[in-house]
Amino acid sequence: MDPAPIVAIVGRPNVGKSTLFNRLIGKKMAIIAEEAGTTRDRVMQKMDCHGYFINLVDTGGLEYGKKENIEEDIQSQSHVAIDGADVILFIVDVSAELTSNDFAAAEILRKSKKDIILVASKCDNQGFEDRIYNIYELGFGEPVKISAIHKLGIESLTHTIEDHLKKQGFKKGEQIKIEDQTNICILGKPNAGKSSLVNSLLGSEKVIVSDVPGTTRDSTDTEVVYKEKTYNLIDTAGLRKRGKIERGIEKFSALRCLMAIERSDIVILLIDGSKGLTSQDAHIVSYALEHNKGLIIGVNKIDLFEEGEETRDSITHRLQRKFSFIPWAPVIFLSAKNKKNIYNIFELADKIMAERRKRIPTPEFNSFLQKITFKHVPASARQKKPKFKYGSQVEIEPPTFLFFFKFANNLHFSYPRYLENEIRKEYGFQGTAIQLKFKNQTSENEQSLKTSQ
After folding, report:
1. Which residue of 27, 90, 224, 315 is surrounded by the most CB atoms within 10 Å?
2. Are 67 and 179 in contact (CB under 8 A)?
3. Distance between CA atoms of residues 111 and 421, nearest Å
4. Residue 433 pLDDT more than 90?
5. Half-sphere exposure of residue 328, counting CA atoms within 13 Å on the CB side?
6. How far apart are the first and last CA of the chain?
7. Within a 10 A sphere around the Cβ of 150, how many other Cβ atoms?
C-alpha cells in the first residue's frame, strides 16, 4: 500500500473542487465545466505539499437525498473518498448563499470524525466578505479564503494542510518511488467494460460501473499489487474517432485520455467480444502506436458468447485481418464480470516490459544489419541510391534504433517496414512498438520514418 497521506477535496456540486485540484497539482488533470456533476470518479494525483508527498483526491459533489442509478454511484464514490482520507478539504462557494446540500455535506463530514479544513472558494467575487460570515454556521471555525482561478490563498491553504499532517504524525521526506511500477492504460470504445475490468482486478468498486456509455469522464489512476509487483491501472473515458468526438466535456475527456496514453507504458485495447470488431477499434489502436507504447488486445465479455476453440479461432482470424499492421500484439480472451483470465494481463505486462527494456549490443546489431541490408539492398526511384553505413540502438522504452544511410532521404517508404520485420524476426520485441530513425551520414538533419500503418 502507498504510505502517503490522502487529502480529499469534497463539497456540493460546482463549488470549484476540480479547479482547486488542478491548481494544487499544477496541471489540468480534472475536467472543469460549468455543468454541475462533471467529476464522476475519484481522481487522484500525487503532489508535494511543503515536503509532504500526498495523494490529492478530487471527488464528485455531495448532495442531499437519495439519488438514482449513476448519481447514486457518484455519491458512494465521494463517501469512499471521505472514509479513506487523512485530511478533508471542505469547499464552500462564497459567491452564493449556503444551501441545504452544504449543510448536509457538513453533517456527513462531522460524522466522519476526520480532520476537516473549511475552504471558502471563489473569494475573488465582489461582496464575498458580506457572505463569508455565513460559513461559520457550518460549525468548522475559521475558513481558509481562496480563489483557485486567480491563485489567491493557495499558499495559506497548503500550509494549513501541512500543519494537519504534522499533527497526525506524518513525516516529510523524499517521494517513495517504485522503480518497477508499470503503468497500464485501458482503452476502448464506450461501454467495452474498462471500468469493470479495473474493479475486478482490484476486487473493489473504486471506479463507477454503469450500463450508460460514457460513464467515465476522467482518467483514474489506481495502484494494485500482484505477486509483489506494483502496477498502476489507468481507466479512461471511451474513445471515439476524432471526427465523432463532440465538443464540450466529451472533447476534454478525449484529451485526458490521450494524456493518459502518453504517461503509460502499456495500453490494453479492450474489445467487447459479444459485438465484434469495428473500424473504430483499429482507429483507437493508432493512438497507442503514435506514442510507441506496449500493446495488448483484450477480448472482453467472453461469458456472453459461445466458449470454444472454434469461436475463439474465428475471432482471432478477424483480429489478424483487422490488425494486420500489429502482428506483434498479444491477444487475451477474458471476462471482467467473471474474473476469467484477467490476471494474465499482469503476466503479459511483465513480458512486454522486459521486451521494452531489451538492449542489443551495437557490434552484434551492426553485424546483423550488414546481413539483412546485403540480402535486400535499399531501392529508390531517384538517381542517387541510398547506401547503408551503420546503426545502433539508442534508447529503450520504447526500443529506438538509429540508422545511418548515405542519401537517407531517398529511401523507399517500404524499406523501414522491411527493417522492422527483420529486427522482430531476430530479436522479438513482442508486445511493444519499436521506433526507427534515419540519418544522413553527411548531414545533421534527422528524420524519423515509421513503418506505414
Report:
1. 90
2. no
3. 62
4. yes
5. 23
6. 41
7. 12
CA distance linking residue 170 with residue 162, whole number of Å: 9
* Gap between the Cα atoms of 292 and 257, Å rounded: 16
- Burial of 397 from C-beta contacts in 10 A (0-12 / 13-18 / 19+): middle
**pLDDT at position 201 over 80:** yes
Q: Is 421 exposed, middle or buried (0-12, 13-18, 19+ CB in 10 A)?
A: middle
For residue 79, name the pLDDT band (cuts at 50, 70, 90): low
Alpha helices by DSSP H, listed for 85-168, are 100-112, 128-132, 154-167
How do residues 285-311 score in pLDDT, each as one tens digit? 888 888 899 999 999 988 776 556 667
Decide if pLDDT at 37 tops 60.
Answer: no
Q: Which three cell numbers stand for residue 12?
A: 456540493
pLDDT value at position 218?
54
Orientation angle between helical segments 415-427 and 362-375, nearest 10 degrees = 130
Q: Which of 93, 90, 105, 92 is nearest to 10 (CA)?
A: 90
CB atoms within 10 A of CB 80: 17
- 350, 217, 291, 19 alpha-carbon torsion, rounded to 10°: -110
pLDDT band for position 116 (cuts 50, 70, 90): very high
